[in-house]
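Lab notebook: predicted structure, single chain.

Context: the supervisor wants predicted structures on file for every construct in the current expression panel, including those that have not yet been purified. This is the next one on the list. No modifications to the sequence; it matches the entry in the shared construct table.
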Amino acid sequence: MANELIIHSRPHETRVALVENGVVVELHIERRTGQELMGNIYRGRVVRVLPGMQAAFVDIGLDRSAFLYVSDVHQDLMELEQMMLGNSAEPEAELSQEQQDVWVEHPKALSMNIEDLLREGQDIMVQIAKEPIGTKGARLTSHISMPGRHLVLMPNVDHIGISRKIEDPAERERLKNLVQEIRTGSLGFIVRTASEGSDKNKLKSEMDFLQKLWASIQEKMAKHTSPGLLYRDLSVSLRSVRDLFTREVDRLVIDSKEEYSTIMEFIETFVPALKYSVELYEGPEPIFDFYGIEMELSRALDNKIWLKSGGYIVIELTEALTAIDVNTGSYVGTRNLEETILKTNLEAVKEIAYQLRLRNLGGLIVIDFIDMEKKSNREKVFTTL
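Prediction complete. Output recorded below exactly as produced.
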């Protein structure tokens, strides 16, 4: 079956579904009534440093202060601030390439105390890493990243990384050498999966665009004197084209003429080869009903999900974490209780993995599986997970 991106756009809401072999595997919703903050970049001002929590509250111009953990603070923040103020100094020592690799993948490895990095009243550039939930403000990072279709610009890290989904060693080496050749200065880049097979001109064109965008953000940062927005990320429909419309996706179908025109303009600019795979849906039936997505959407919004065996899982979102509880429900098995529990837990693992991707859930995930007596069974569940 075909892999498809289905976009349902209305004045109050846009919904995007990624369908693989007839199954909805990702669902993204953007409501016009609320603020979509993820990926936005702000000029922030530190309002409170909390050594006991190794975090800080930062005013970014919204109703609530946002939260910045020490692991999300750029280690060279003081140096960057000095450069911004025209009082730059040479760092005492540069990070080795090996250290940079560790830093990019494991920011906590080189972390310092929050009070050594930030002070109250300090202005810093930050990016939304996690949307606010409940009474808890947004989570921030100062590790800025700006994704394009083929590349992700990481302006604060001198590092070139290649997507793990590009598996061919020769292609990985070719792309790394190509980016190293065309990049200017010490800006870092991650080569995305969509870059596989791309030539020098295509990568350089996108690199130039991202660098100009970064320069404009820096200009705004220097010009503004109070906390506020510096850069707003793309709408959910354009983000979907940028991030999800890969060579594995056969077509994109959208039901809004206005959004169709916007998407076609975006594609003509960045990936003209994809324009023949975009369709405007004009049928009488709602597009999500026509493709059988509406039922899956209702299922995704329910916190109780039934398993085929008769067991079920319950997903609860809190400000601190996502809690998932596994239950046998009406399933009693055909042999012994231990076997029944094992089968339910194994089925739950697959459903949980699917639900986490479908609902775009991250952060701390706590799963309460049904207790098992045999160590071998516990290991089976752990291995499957």
